[in-house]
Design goal:
The complex is a heterotrimer of chains A (312), B (479) and C (79).
Chain A: H1 2-25, H2 43-49, E1 59-62, H3 65-68, H4 73-78, E2 83-85, H5 93-107, E3 111-115, H6 126-135, H7 140-148, H8 152-167, E4 181-184, E5 188-191, H9 210-225, E6 229-234, H10 239-244, H11 248-256, E7 261-263, H12 272-275, H13 284-297, H14 300-311
Parallel strand pairs in A: 1-2, 1-3, 3-6, 6-7
Antiparallel strand pairs in A: 4-5
Helix pairs in contact in A: 2-6, 5-7, 5-9, 6-8
Chain B: H1 6-22, H2 27-43, H3 49-67, E1 68-69, E2 72-73, H4 75-106, H5 125-140, H6 150-158, H7 160-163, H8 171-179, H9 186-219, H10 226-257, H11 275-281, H12 284-301, H13 306-325, H14 329-340, H15 343-346, H16 350-359, H17 361-384, H18 388-398, H19 413-432, H20 449-466
Antiparallel strand pairs in B: 1-2
Helix pairs in contact in B: 1-2, 2-6, 3-4, 3-5, 3-6, 4-5, 6-8, 9-10, 9-19, 9-20, 10-17, 10-18, 12-13, 13-14, 14-17, 16-17, 17-18
Chain C: H1 2-16, H2 37-51, H3 57-62, H4 66-78
Helix pairs in contact in C: 1-2
The chains are: A alpha/beta (312), B mainly alpha (479), C mainly alpha (79).
């Protein structure tokens, strides 16, 4: 038996080395987009670099593209509120949890505004995992998250990113965001364009993946345990898309049970042609309207003052 | 626990090491650890299911010991035992049906997730119930003596490699292996590992990738053309084969690594030249179980009805085979239809068959293969459909003009092309291996260890690279 | 007893459609290509008709070879 075990051990060792080499050598494979293994430009890379200069801020924004394209820290600073936007593409609760566990103690926000939408609970989170793995410092929560996505591609991304980072340290000047997108300090991504373009988003069904819901609950618990004020919000989308969904009230009910939740589709009347770029994302004008409404509706200035008083 | 989960990887390595260390002590240690391992494996997803497993094992163990009393068969005990087993199976399968209907309302059914509604359904119940029933019947026919040692019996019922998806071993094959200590046989273990690797490859690379394509095609069947349904059926046939035979290979491979020899469950059935031959090679442990405990008794009972009796016995046998798969009308129809396909073989035309085999053997074989493959492929539409009406929709599409159109696939042409390539490669590769024990049997592998390691590495690497995601193809890249 | 075996042989040749078939006491079903579960029952029916007897299901499933089959027939005839 000893010889057999020894053979297995040698094989595993050789295979692991061979595997790491191949992962680096092959940028992508049939049906698997390149960015699974090598990260393309991402706003998260920029925003995470701003974390050291954004400690003890008033507001931290989390969520998917609704967040990083929907909350502009410049508007909030007009009201005297400092903020950082750590939204990222298709960010699901698994990534939000890993992000917070890695950076929350450093950032120490007074309020967290967590943007949610039905879709994030039904995704497996692989793209967002890879985004986070490549752009964040590697931590145990991120390893745990990679494991929880239940996809070997996340593990491959970790191996790939480790070797890449070892060979070529991250160069922030090299990355460029996609055309028409501009990174604004504070984590907001401004999209140029003011006319509405119809993009066909496939049909959705309301489905809460157990691992995503569990991660969501763990995130809420973590935020509460840190004594941070949590505001869960749903960003506004185009009216016709919103009303085409038959599960809105079910979704709202489920989310309201875990924390303070506001669905801004109910509080805003936006104009599709002026305020929206596509059925899910706002123009700069739309962001202005949304953010100002949010600041007033949630009474954020007062909330921050209350927290400052409490801490004294 | 699933064979393809990472927790099974950890479990199996630890279990394997301790098992073989214990084998140096005593048989009791070895069997005791085997039972503990089986219960950990089964109870991992839901420990409450263990109660059912233990309860069923206990009832059958006690019944088995009392069926023969002073060389007389105590029929009431036999009836009670059979009724108990069938009753538990029917209860849970129907309960399963209702729970699944609820689950379909709240979530897509193509996503596999053991921690959701399947909590309540005892996994593997169809398999271990059949093991118990065959045991009781064999005792009543005096083909087998009751097992005296409870540890041996509980291991027979709960043996974890075959607990969830077979093969369904009989007592006369399996129990003798439990009574003797298993010795560490390096070649046997390596062969088992090879078979496991091959099963893993079939399941992850072929079956799971096919599933993405077939789920996309068959879930929105209204928008599909006959041609895409046709392609979908071909892929689905390979998917079911790869999935099921892959699982069986993993089960048999795992068992071999523990020193056990299980019955073969698949014998390269897709190359069969007739439907009867197909069923002799597909899910062998189930069909031979049905043949011995359902078909033969029926056949004997109907023997005075001549060929009609035989046909009746076959049709009933296969309808039950269909029902075994699930509490749904389409499974029953699937079984029934396959039973009907036996009729031509029963009504023999010896002179015609002789003529065809002697003069045109190759053409006869080729036609037989095509006819069988296409028949199996087309009947799988009933299997895949969620109801009979949906199955009829598929057939209407298949026999409409749209079968001549170019198929379109919502999961993407590249992915479908890759999947088709994988399916055809599997068919070709296993054709060359069809006379071997399993797809990766050693005789065809190179002799030098280095080359074999390269092949294993290539297979493992392909598994890691081509492992599909659990998402549907609708990925929100812009989100 | 040999007479019974001879008669079984005669019936088997007809059922299995093989004129060159020869069975003896120790012949098992697995040794003959044409002998499967279907033809087995057809043989049993032929035997029952020929000897004017009837077997029980248990008896039919209990034979391991032709010799045991022959013994069963013998016991039935004697009765």
């Amino acid at each position: 038996m000893q010889k057999f075990l020894f053979d297995c051990f040698i094989f595993s060792l050789l295979f692991s080395i061979f595997y790491c080499i191949l992962i680096i050598a092959i940028p992508g494979f049939l049906g698997v987009p390149t960015r699974y293994y090598t990260a393309e430009s991402s706003n998260l890379g920029y925003s995470l670099q701003e974390v050291p200069s954004h400690t003890k801020i008033d507001i931290l924004f989390l969520g998917s593209s609704h967040a990083y394209r929907g909350f502009d820290p410049r508007i909030f600073s007009e009201f005297g509120l400092s903020s950082l936007n750590l939204g990222s593409s298709a960010q699901t609760p698994l990534q939000t949890e890993a992000l917070l566990r890695t950076y929350l103690k450093e950032i120490k926000p007074k309020i967290i505004i967590y943007e949610v939408s039905p879709i994030i609970f039904s995704l497996d989170g692989l793209e967002s995992s890879v985004d986070l793995i490549w752009n964040s410092r590697l931590s145990f929560p991120i390893l745990e998250m990679a494991f929880r996505t239940r996809s070997v591609h996340a593990i491959n991304a970790i191996i790939c990113s480790l070797i890449y980072k070892f060979l070529k340290p991250y160069d922030s000047n090299k990355n460029q965001l996609a055309n028409g997108m501009e990174y604004i300090s504070g984590g907001y991504v401004q999209t140029n364009g003011s006319s509405y373009i119809e993009i066909d988003y496939p049909d959705e069904t309301l489905y809460f993946r157990p691992e995503q819901w569990d991660a969501f609950e763990r995130t809420i618990l973590l935020i509460n345990q840190q004594g941070i004020e949590l505001k869960i919000v749903q960003s506004p989308i185009v009216d016709s898309l919103y009303h085409a969904r038959d599960y809105n009230s079910r979704f709202d009910t489920k989310i309201s049970k875990v924390g303070f939740y506001t669905n801004f589709n109910k509080h805003l009347k936006l104009n599709k042609n002026i305020d929206f770029l596509d059925s899910e994302h706002l123009t700069s004008k739309g962001v202005q309207v949304f953010n100002r409404n949010l600041i007033n509706h949630l009474n954020l200035k007062r909330e921050v003052e209350k927290i400052i008083d409490l801490r004294k | 626990m699933l064979f393809t989960s990472s927790i099974f990887l950890v479990f199996s390595v630890l279990f394997f090491l301790i098992y073989w260390v214990f084998s140096r002590f005593s048989l009791l240690c070895q069997n005791g650890w085997l039972l503990i391992g089986s219960y950990i494996f089964y109870g991992w997803t839901n420990w409450m299911l263990l109660f059912i497993l233990v309860a069923v094992s206990s009832v059958n163990f006690l019944c088995g010991r009392r069926i023969i009393n002073k060389s007389k068969i105590v029929k009431p005990i036999l009836f009670f035992g059979i009724l108990f087993n069938v009753g538990t199976l029917v209860y849970f399968k129907y309960a399963n049906f209702f729970i699944e209907s609820f689950r379909d309302i709240f979530g897509p059914s193509h996503l596999e997730n053991l921690s959701t509604a399947k909590l309540i359904i005892p996994l593997g119940i169809s398999y271990y119930t059949f093991r118990n029933i065959s045991y009781l019947l064999d005792i009543s026919r005096e083909k087998y003596k009751p097992v005296k040692n409870w540890l041996v019996y509980y291991n027979y019922v709960s043996f974890f490699p075959s607990l969830l998806a077979g093969p369904i071993d009989r007592a006369n094959n399996f129990v003798p292996q439990l009574i003797l200590p298993r010795k560490f046989d390096k070649e046997g273990i390596k062969n088992g590992l090879r078979q496991f690797l091959w099963g893993l490859f079939k399941k992850i690379v072929i079956a799971d990738n096919c599933a993405i394509v077939t789920d996309a095609i068959f879930d929105s069947s209204n928008a599909q053309s006959g041609s895409s349904i046709l392609v979908g059926l071909f892929i689905y046939t390979l998917q079911i084969y790869a999935d099921f035979s892959g699982y069986s290979d993993m089960a048999i491979g795992t068992a071999r690594m523990l020193g056990f020899n299980l019955v073969k469950n698949f014998n390269f059935p897709l190359y069969s030249k007739s439907i009867p031959e197909f069923w002799r090679k597909w899910h062998i442990s189930l069909t031979s179980w049905l043949s011995e405990y359902i078909f033969t008794p029926l056949n004997i009972a109907f023997r005075n009805l001549g060929r009609l009796g035989i046909v009746l016995a076959i049709v009933i046998n296969f309808t039950i085979c269909g029902i075994w798969h699930g509490a749904n009308t389409n499974y029953i129809v699937f079984g029934f239809v396959h039973g009907l396909f036996f009729i031509p073989s029963v009504l023999k035309f010896p002179r015609l068959q002789d003529f065809l085999t002697r003069r045109y053997e190759f053409v006869n074989d080729l036609l037989g293969f095509l006819a069988t493959f296409l028949t199996v492929m087309f009947t799988f539409a009933i299997f895949k459909a969620k109801s009979i009406t949906i199955a009829i929709d598929y057939y209407l599409l298949l026999f409409s003009r749209s079968i001549w159109t170019v198929p379109t696939f919502s999961s993407g042409k590249t992915h479908v092309a890759m999947v088709l390539l994988l399916c055809i490669s599997l068919l070709v590769f296993e054709w060359y291996q069809r006379n071997r024990e399993h797809g990766l049997t050693i005789h065809t592998l190179p002799k030098h260890r280095a080359w074999r390691w390269v092949i294993y590495s290539a297979i493992l690497f392909t598994i890691c690279f081509l492992m599909p995601r659990s998402n549907s193809p609708f990925i929100y890249t812009n989100f | 007893m040999t007479e019974i075996i001879e008669q079984i042989n005669f019936l088997a040749r007809d059922v299995f459609e093989n004129d060159n078939l020869i069975v003896n006491e120790s012949t098992k079903a697995s040794e003959i290509e044409e002998w499967d579960s279907l033809t087995h029952i057809m043989l049993v029916v032929a035997i029952e008709k020929h000897f004017g007897i009837r077997f029980s299901a248990r008896e039919i499933q209990s034979w391991d070879n032709v010799g045991e089959l022959s013994d069963s027939i013998k016991m039935k005839i004697v009765k």
